[in-house]
């Protein structure tokens, strides 16, 4: 099925018997931020009883009450008689899951609403559950594609997920698609594989990887094969060059048109070919240590 422009389809995964635990969604979504607060003054003389250490030692009572801008969230169920629609409704709680997933994506890519990088002003996200081929894709609506997004999720796909994985898988797909609502694209010139890799890197970091993902398969292909293949490579870069590396890449995709050589050497200091070779070398060396 041809997709409209600006869409980002997800490939149909192959499912294996479920091995992962149930939906790990916890109640910590509303924590304002886990990053240190720049400019925060540590209490140094807080050893004696009665000292006011608690007020500034934990972030809860810090003056910052800033929150990420919340998009208007909408849900369309296009066919209530469809099996997948019923399964969707019985597997997740959209009014809880959608804001939580938005929050996860915002924190993964931007850390903090004002002290991190420049977050796109996405004003609305509409999740449309409908019978269609494929898994899901994200698009911008014609009138204002930058600020108003639609995520189309296939109810047929939802019906095909093994019952014990439904909540986890639906959440994983939604997180992936929400990344497309909040990421930059190098002024339209970033490789699709990098865009999909960042989306699955966030999904990976959210502990929502499906059981068919296999770290190590990607070294046989190209760095921008996309999806989990590129996601594992991005995690390697994050581990090697420090937390925030993928956020810097996303920021680089905001500030200038993607041009491969200057992009990678400018942000990481090495060309992509060298980084990919290093990764493959490290991954093949590590093979013996993993079961
Ligand atoms: Zn995608």
TrEMBL record:
Biased composition (Pro residues): 1-14
Listed Low complexity bias regions: 20-36
Ranges of biased composition (kind: Basic and acidic residues): 40-50
Region annotation Disordered: where it falls in the sequence: 1-69
Compositional bias ranges of the Polar residues kind: 55-67
Pfam families: BSP
PANTHER family xref list: PLANT BASIC SECRETORY PROTEIN (BSP) FAMILY PROTEIN, PTHR33321
Protein name, entry field: Uncharacterized protein
Species this protein is from: Xylaria hypoxylon
Phylogenetic classification of the source organism: Eukaryota, Fungi, Dikarya, Ascomycota, Pezizomycotina
